[in-house]
Amino acid sequence: MVHSDPNKQSEEPPQLKKVIGVFGGSNILIGIMIGSGIFYIGSYVLQRAGMSMGLALLAWLIGGLVTLLGSLCFAELGAMNPATGGIYVYLSDAYSPVVGYMFNFQSMVIGGPGSIAAIAIALPMALKTFLPMNGQMVKIWAIVLIVIFTLINYFGVDTGEWVQNLFNVLKVLPLILIILLGLFWGHYDPNLTLAPHTGHVSPVGFIQMLAFAVIASLWAYEGWTNLNAVAGEMKNPQRNLPRALILSVGFTTIVYVLFNLAIYRSLPFGQISNTIQHNQLYLGTDVARSFLGQFGTVLVAGAMVLAMISSLNGMILAFARYYYAAARDHLLWRSFAHINSKYRTPDFSLFIQMLISIGLVMTRELDQLTSLVVFSGAIFNLLSVLAVPVMRHRQPNTPRPYKVWAYPWTVVIAAVAFLIILGNNFIDDPVTSVLGLVVPAIGAMVYWGFRHHYNSDQVG
What we know:
- The chain is mostly helical and 460 residues long.
- It is built from 15 helices and no strands.
- It has a single domain (22-453), classed as Amino acid/polyamine transporter I.
- It is 73% helix and 0% strand.
- The chain is globular, with a radius of gyration of 23 Å.
- It is a multi-pass membrane protein.
- It is found in: Membrane.
- Keywords: Membrane, Transmembrane, Transmembrane helix.
């Protein structure tokens, strides 16, 4: 008789815990999307909309609609294949592993470092109300911040879950305060016509202006694809993933529109225009000051800074793992997979990420960084949306617990929207757009180079 040993350890590898439900998934996305961008992106949206408040609000709505349509497509893909990995998995399955790697590569070179650089620049700009500084000083402080938080993550400092939750609360509080003050106690009736204040424009010029404003708004929605990356850790992802996506994107769109409307109701147009012209982008602090005086300014600015510090630290921590994971899969040099023996952190990846981020700070402005991240992300969002019909053709019999509403029109509208965004950004900022195209192309060459090298080693 064979007796089982109760002390014998299971040889099965540990599995990810399925602990995320609808509420938890929605909170993850809302926490990612409602970040630092809302505090300053509204100024860029208004500026790109020809200072038309009505056109700016329309851009926020369209940005939310595009994000929602894209999220519906991601809901079908995620429910069909609820595996951890998100876009990487969908692009690899629908097209080729090299396409999935191109997404990972642009995340390593543009998406991660670009987001880090943007937050690092935005943080000192939020303090310009208290500490006047020129553009050069803003960039110096941005570089210092990137270095400091890279070192913090190198030494393995764990802030703890309760600190992150505190930062999330502090991030939302100024939004709620400004929305309530502006909507219920604002004294101004904003002009919500769609006519730009910059003068008459042709119909084609109007569409281009609106599309360029939508691109800016999409930076604030950036991060909506991240829930699919943890689909493997969701409870009943076939049902909960689509619900969490729809709920979080819808809620975020409402918050963004109300936040900007509250600003328009709280401040006269002349003050808003003059403030933006002087590169003071944080209109929310002006709203708080108009109602609560200097205390309101300090309260909102302090909460924004703490929230951005949390975002910057989290990005530096998380994005460095892209390099580590790629090297572990033999698709980058082994140095990127090195773990510091004392602090147990991916030191080489952290410092390479720091150098790329600093390079982007030195060569790009804040609005260029946001456009760069959105443009490069839109390329793969478009491919992911088109993966829905591709997978329906390639795997027609695979169970689909959730199907895109109004298919194929949802896919068509979302794809056209991303194409318009890409085309318009290419016209308005060709240098940024070329960079957004070149980096994934280099990623393809890197993939084939490392894959060939690894296969050769295996044969040898």
